[in-house]
Amino acid sequence: MWAMSGWLTDRPIDVAALLADVASAGTGGTVLFLGTVRRSEDDGPVESIEYSAYEEMAEAELGRIVDEARTQWPGARIALRHRTGLVPLGEPSVAIAAAAPHRAEAYAASRFLIEETKRRAPIWKKERLAGEARWVEGRPGGG
Amino acid sequence: MWAMSGWLTDRPIDVAALLADVASAGTGGTVLFLGTVRRSEDDGPVESIEYSAYEEMAEAELGRIVDEARTQWPGARIALRHRTGLVPLGEPSVAIAAAAPHRAEAYAASRFLIEETKRRAPIWKKERLAGEARWVEGRPGGG
Amino acid sequence: MTGAAGRGAAGAGGIRVRIRLFASYAEAAGRDALEMALPAGAVAADVLAAVRREPWAARLPPSPAVAINLRYAKPDAALADGDEVAIIPPVAGG
Amino acid sequence: MTGAAGRGAAGAGGIRVRIRLFASYAEAAGRDALEMALPAGAVAADVLAAVRREPWAARLPPSPAVAINLRYAKPDAALADGDEVAIIPPVAGG
What we know:
The complex is a heterotetramer, with two copies of chain A (143 residues) and two copies of chain C (94 residues).
Chain A: E1 8-9, H1 15-22, E2 29-36, E3 48-53, H2 55-72, E4 77-83, E5 85-88, E6 92-100, H3 103-120, E7 123-129, E8 132-135
Parallel strand pairs in A: 1-4
Antiparallel strand pairs in A: 2-6, 3-5, 3-7, 4-6, 7-8
Helix pairs in contact in A: 2-3
Chain C: E1 15-21, H1 23-29, E2 33-38, H2 44-51, E3 65-68, E4 71-73, E5 84-88
């Protein structure tokens, strides 16, 4: 019914490997997006964020998002990883590499991928502050 | 009258160092752009590209472009390097890292920086094909 | 709302579906999966209506996102025996 | 068009500027720098007009980009003694 495609990982994301994945002789522009656990001023000292996912569906939905991008920008090469589990402050929770013959396509594919990932991937996060934990309010979700 | 700011380099660009330069606890989104010497189908086998620059002015102009981006996106952290000299196929000739509290700013700053660099930096390239070399037609140039 | 597992246990023509809960919903409900028997012809909205009878479900928004078999689905999407129905809290990945 | 280097050599009220050429322009001209004496009040366009008298300058576009002291300048930008004026071929960085 579904296969783990490896879009999710519970280990630190190897950014250099993602860039190598999308490299090719026909590439003129490569755009890498990194989403990072941010220390927010109003929130007090967030120490880390724990990401949980509906894993089978997140793999399927991220696969659909990547397929949509590949259909829309046929020349693009795409790599994507989203962390699950505890992500310390400053480490990327998501990394997306998009390479294309021309930079406009690489930027457009990159932006599409992160916006759709944030809108659709069934992933949740819980902030761990000093001594407490709370769910972060997200977006409604949906295709 | 001008100071070498280090926007130009005649050595391979250390992408990990650029990303580290822009990292901070307040960063939510980081966008890295890499421009790469591309093998073009119509052009025959380009082996490398030699970049030459009006170095003093390129340093000054790139500095102005970065200052403009910092004024327009005050929360952004920016790092930029452009190669001079011989760049082999597949290696980045330009790398731009832009980090900001929110991803929209990081994308906007990144795009501004590469477009202005291409439009304004007094840098030229000569393709080296098998046994010949030729200047690549560029943009008119100008501020 | 719970019941013996296994297909066909809902009686002639009925279906059984598996409901999955996540994140804040799972925490509020105190569990992350349950089984539900529904009449033939049931749709996603019927699952939501049944779940709303539970006390923790006061926290559900008016139209929570629902997925059937790993895909987002509309409230009027038809259910089949053995389907996995997930109630998806507001997502916060990226 | 060339002449003894040094400021003030252009005579009373005149200026001397240094012209720099790059890439295909330098290759066509066979050199990458020259000195030029101009009357007081000269502007960037006067440098271009003088350069156009050289045979290689047939390849210059109608309005080549010009920089004065490391900044892009308009054709009517005033020149001062000692300025560095660059004629910028179409750029191709990135």
